[in-house]
Design goal:
The structure holds two protein chains of two kinds. Chain A is an alpha+beta fold. Chain A folds into three domains: 2-31, no CATH class; 32-81 and 110-253, Immunoglobulin-like, CATH 2.60.40; 272-358, Immunoglobulin-like. Helices cover 37% and strands 17% of the residues of chain A. Chain A has a five-stranded mixed sheet with strand order 4-3-2-6-9, with no helix packed on it. In chain A, helix 6 (272-284) crosses helix 9 (348-358) and helix 7 packs across helix 9 (348-358). Residues 1-37 of chain A have low confidence and may be disordered. By secondary structure, chain B is mostly helical. Among the domains of chain B are: 10-30 and 517-587, no CATH class; 321-507, Cytochrome C Oxidase, Chain A; 597-638. Chain B has a three-stranded antiparallel sheet with strand order 1-4-3, with no helix packed on it. In chain B, helix 6 packs antiparallel against helix 7, helix 7 (211-243) runs antiparallel to helix 8 (256-273) and helix 10 (297-311) runs antiparallel to helix 12. Chain B is globular, with a radius of gyration of 25 Å. The chains are: A alpha+beta, B mainly alpha. At the A-B interface, helix 3, strand 1 and helix 4 of A face helix 4, helix 11, helix 12, strand 2 and helix 13 of B. Chain A: InterPro entries: CcO_II (IPR045187), CcO_II-like_C (IPR002429), Copper_CuA (IPR001505), Cupredoxin (IPR008972), CuRO_CcO_Caa3_II (IPR034236), Cyt_c-like_dom (IPR009056), Cyt_c-like_dom_sf (IPR036909), Cyt_c_oxidase_su2 (IPR014222). Chain A: One of its GO terms (molecular function) is heme binding. Chain A: It is found in: Membrane.
């Protein structure tokens, strides 16, 4: 499954950037670096270059605003400097020595002219803003399905809901796939404190607030991996509450969805290591983590049924490699101080068995 | 009240005998009693300034620690909890314990001098507001002693602030500390409002008031209107935490957004509250170095008041991402754009003043010129964020961090530093070194811009606020390094200011009464001014009493050397609200320890509430009430008992 997902990435039509990032997950296997380095560009959270209609129209507005802002700042600073040198300068020889005073007329003209210009620019900006706001309010077409995202300290749960067939729903975490070129509705709820859902290359933020369900929508027009990150301070590990959006070709997306519906493969007969791993996982981890098709059914932590489909762990904090997986399970409090996952009481062999078992969850 | 005793004050000239007599009446007694009992607005003003600068230094050191942590990706100099406490206390310190108190300090010092009177309307309340400020600041800082400083930012959103997520005392320190601090700002604001309405030099009608007076008065009214919201918000938070009420807790039907509304209804006006008086200081002091009156005095005042009014109608622009319907957001977006207009008036007035004036380049002037540029940058980045659609991206990124620092450092700190170079000679009688001043200004200015101009880019690169570290691949490393380097240069620049102050106090050049040849009343008295400020009550005939002969614009003449002699005990004039016509002679209080003692009782009370010592809390409450009764008991020497008043 992993092979399939990664291999389809470097599609011929995909632009260079996307091609580069599609190879990146392979590198991550070998690299101990933090997972973020795989993302599309050297600045994965940059939002003035965007890849969807919602982000695009906002980026143009932001560029316009920034250009005006920079222009006004430079103009006014130049005026201050010119004004300083214009009439020559006096100096104060000793404290208290009187200097000439004048009351030249003409100052008010500045204000009338400045005010008129300012007002015109502001009116234009208000109109532009309202226009963009109307554009991004709703997608052009009705989204085909909804992802119910639940923010919590410090990860993202995602429940995919097929409106036509409730049995085709499933739960995953932190890495969301969407079909390229289609709008997707996202509802946002919180299980604890306020978070904010933000994938800058695609759209602006929407807060995730307990007691209410907010709604937003996303659309990616190019295949690729887009980084998101919690944007509202939410406690100790606010810094490590990222997510990834994978924009897939429609067929690949459909295949991904179908695969996610499947329960985990059964542990093959005869493998003592995997059997121990499965049992230890159920005892040590199953209270918080679910692996569908087994007795592990906890809901406090991410669903791990298809863990190996994900490129990262710990809410996009670490790459999903065997080494990082072991390190994370052994000592999550070191990797992500304060995380809700406690340090387990595991022997070396038990840890090893659990990790081998997890590697079968593809 | 029946008038039993009428006194017609006599007019006279300044004489040595009169000065000696007044000095004896007005001076603060030496010794410990004088330290805790003084009601002299100048002493209190300087205490405010020194304390606020001390908090500035502490908040600045916190910032430097954070900058070390963020200089490179994935650093572990600070733990997440330490970082969160530091950024929270940095915000709380700078916004509450530095930014307003520093302005209160200048206003406290300058109000009676600018207005041509001898003290604030309520001198004991003035002392009280300082003591409560100091006590509430120390109260909040005591949290560091047990390692439980507030850790939820100055904005302190629920439900993270509630007990299930934040079980320590951290939030209780903040909640109680802010209710405590609110008492200081409220009484201080009331004092400014009453002083400006009742205690001015005869003839100083409202169209002759210095702009700084207008700025501080405007924001004082703003404080009186805004403060209840935040005191309530924090009180409800405290109830939620201690007694399980559910104001912000969804489990009991509460609303996390209630906190945000209550907080920002206060905190957005607060942003204007901590910049408008600084803008007023610049409007008064900048023209002195342009050798002309300010352009468009009336428009600048109207702009000040309009800004404050509009400031109450834009709080939702902090909440654009909370899921509020787009239609209602468009109102708040529009209102946020409109607030640019009064700011533009002030900016063009300053530039026109420089343009049409003849500039005297001093350190103070450089700070004011830098202030204008920083004000514009902070203003236009505010316009960018006022646009809802753009703000949905910019919100909670370092772009906003850059914006607030341009606003707060650019407008507040640069205005204050310029103001300090301008008024320090008045306060100390010594000039600050201009040479050291240039170094001070340029390092501060360049360090600040190196730290915060690239930070806009950090925000556009998508770095969220309030993260204690960031991954290497995010592309934020080099901009963060720039900011860290800049912040240390800025800190070094500020250090030079303290060096300059220290050297000046030791061997500065004597300033004389009016070193800048400035026009307003504070320059008509000695530097530093005597305890009674003015020997005879000055009478004002124009907006620029000390320039009016040269400007040739006033109808009459202001009178500084000759005026009413008020020497029958501590006395000053009460004047009418609009025209400042003399109405009554006020008996002013002597040094009084009660404000200090009441503050002690309140500090004990808040500490008891923090630690759930309910009985001690009750006792402290009773002691506070009793203290107020003793303090406010009608007294004959203040003409508060029957038969002692004269009007």
């Amino acid at each position: 499954m992993m092979e399939r997902l990664w291999n389809r990435k470097p599609s011929i039509q995909a632009p260079r950037i996307v091609g580069r990032l599609a190879l990146a997950p392979l590198l991550a296997l070998a690299s101990p670096a933090i997972a973020a380095s795989e993302e599309s560009t050297s600045a994965p959270m940059y939002y003035l270059k965007t890849f969807g209609p919602k982000g695009d129209i906002t980026a143009s507005l932001t560029w316009g605003l920034l250009a005006i802002a920079a222009g006004v700042s430079v103009l006014m600073s130049v005026l201050v400097i010119v004004a300083m040198f214009r009439n020559g300068r006096s100096s104060m020889a000793t404290p208290g020595s009187p200097l000439p005073i004048a009351h030249p007329p003409g100052g008010h003209r500045w204000i009338y002219l400045g005010l008129a210009l300012t007002t015109l620019v502001l009116i234009a900006l208000v109109i532009w803003t309202m226009d963009v706001l109307a554009e991004i309010d709703e997608p052009a077409g009705e989204p085909a399905f909804t992802i119910e995202v639940t923010g919590q300290q410090w990860w993202w749960e995602a429940r995919y809901v097929d409106p036509d067939d409730p049995s085709r729903s499933f739960v995953t975490a932190n890495e969301l796939h969407i079909p390229v070129g289609e709008p997707v509705r996202i509802t946002l709820a919180s299980r604890d404190v306020i978070h904010s859902f933000w994938v800058p290359a695609l759209a602006g933020k929407t807060d995730v607030i307990p007691g209410q369900t907010n709604e937003t929508w996303l659309q990616a027009d190019r295949e690729g991996v887009y980084r998101g990150q919690c944007a509202e301070y939410c406690g100790l590990q606010h810094a490590h509450m990222a997510l990834r959006i994978f924009a897939d070709a429609p067929e690949a997306f459909q295949a991904w969805w179908d695969h996610q519906l499947e329960p985990a493969d059964e542990v093959p007969e005869g493998s003592e290591l995997l059997a121990v791993g499965e049992r230890q996982f159920r005892l040590q981890c199953g209270a918080c983590h679910a692996v569908r098709g087994t007795l592990a059914g906890g809901e406090a932590g991410p669903d791990l049924t298809h863990l190996m489909d994900r490129t990262t762990i710990a809410s996009v904090t670490l790459p999903n490699t065997p080494g990082h997986l072991s390190g994370w399970i052994a000592d999550p409090q070191h990797q992500k101080p304060g995380t809700t996952m406690p340090n387990p009481d595991l022997s070396g062999p038990e840890l090893n068995a659990i990790r081998h078992y997890l590697e079968t969850l593809d | 009240m029946a008038v039993d005793y009428q006194k017609r004050p006599e007019a006279g000239y300044v004489t040595k005998e009169l000065e000696a007599k007044l000095h004896k009446m007005w001076e603060t007694k030496p010794g410990l009693f004088g330290v805790i009992a003084t009601v002299d607005h100048k002493v209190i003003g300087i205490r405010y300034i020194v304390t606020a600068f001390a908090f500035l230094v502490v908040g600045g050191l916190q910032a430097l620690l954070m900058r070390l942590q963020l200089a490179q990706p994935d650093q572990t100099i600070l733990t997440p909890e330490q970082y969160n406490q530091l950024f929270s206390m940095h915000g709380i310190t700078m916004i509450f314990l530095y930014a307003l108190p520093i302005l209160s300090g200048f206003s406290n010092y300058l109000f009676p001098l600018l207005l041509g009177t001898r003290d604030m309307a309520f001198p004991r309340l003035n002392a009280f507001s300082y003591w409560v400020y100091l006590a509430s600041g120390l109260f909040m800082y005591a949290s560091f002693l047990i390692g439980q400083a507030p850790n939820n930012g100055w904005f302190n959103y629920a439900p993270y602030a509630l007990k299930p997520f934040n079980p320590g005392l951290n939030m209780d320190f903040y909640a109680l500390g802010m209710v405590f601090f609110g008492i200081s700002t409220t009484v201080g604001a009331a004092n400014f409002v009453v002083t400006v309405m009742r205690n001015r030099a005869p003839g100083m009608s409202i169209n002759r008031l210095p702009i700084m007076i207008w700025g501080t008065t405007t924001v004082s009214v703003g404080i009186l209107l805004a403060n209840p919201a935040v005191s309530l918000a924090f009180f409800l938070l405290w109830l939620d935490r201690q007694f399980g009420t559910h104001f912000y807790d969804t489990a009991g039907g509460g609303q996390p957004l209630l906190w945000q509304h209550l907080f920002w209804i206060f905190a957005h006006p607060w942003v204007y509250i901590i910049v408008l008086p600084a803008m007023g200081m610049v409007s008064d002091a900048l023209p002195v170095f342009c050798r002309r009156p300010l352009v468009a005095y009336t428009l600048v005042i109207l702009a000040t008041i309009t800004t404050m009014l509009l400031g109450f109608g834009v709080w939702v622009h902090h909440m654009f991402a909370t899921g509020i319907p787009f239609l209602s957001m468009s109102y708040f977006s529009g209102a946020s754009f409109i607030i640019t207009i009064p700011s533009a008036i002030a900016t063009f007035a300053w530039i026109a003043t420089i343009w049409t004036g003849r500039v005297v380049v001093t350190t103070a002037f450089l700070y004011f010129a830098g202030f204008i540029s920083m004000f514009v940058i902070g203003g236009v980045s505010g316009v960018v964020t006022a646009s809802v659609a753009a703000d949905l991206q910019l919100h909670d990124t370092y772009f906003v961090v850059a914006h607030i620092h341009y606003v707060l450092i650019g407008i507040n700190l640069f205005g204050v530093l310029g103001g300090l170079y301008f008024w320090f000679p008045k306060m100390s009688g010594k000039m600050l070194s201009e040479r050291l001043g240039r170094w001070n200004f340029w390092l501060t200015f360049l360090g600040f811009n190196l730290a915060f101009l690239p930070m806009h880019w950090t925000g556009l690169l998508g770095m969220p606020r309030r993260i204690y570290t960031y991954p290497e691949g995010a592309g934020w490393s080099w901009v963060n390094m720039l900011t860290t380097v800049g912040s240390f240069i800025l800190a070094f620049g500020i250090l030079l200011l303290f060096v300059n102050v220290w050297m000046s106090l030791r061997r500065g050049v004597a300033a004389g009464a009016n070193p800048w040849d400035a026009p307003s009343l504070e320059w008509a008295t000695a530097s530093p001014p005597p305890a009674y400020n003015f020997t005879v009550m000055p009478v004002v005939a124009s907006r620029h009493p000390l320039w009016e002969d040269r400007l040739g614009e006033s109808e009459g003449h202001s009178s500084i050397e000759r005026g009413l002699i008020l020497d029958d005990g501590k006395e000053m004039l009460a004047t009418s609200v609009i025209d400042a016509a003399p109405r009554a002679i006020l008996k002013m209080p002597e040094d009084d320890p009660w404000p200090f003692l009441v503050t002690l009782a309140m500090t004990l009370g808040f500490t008891a509430l923090l630690l759930h010592w309910w009985w001690i809390g009750l006792a402290a409450g009773v002691a506070t009430l009793l203290g107020c009764v003793f303090w406010l008991w009608p007294r004959g020497d203040l003409a508060q008992t029957k038969g002692t008043a004269h009007e």
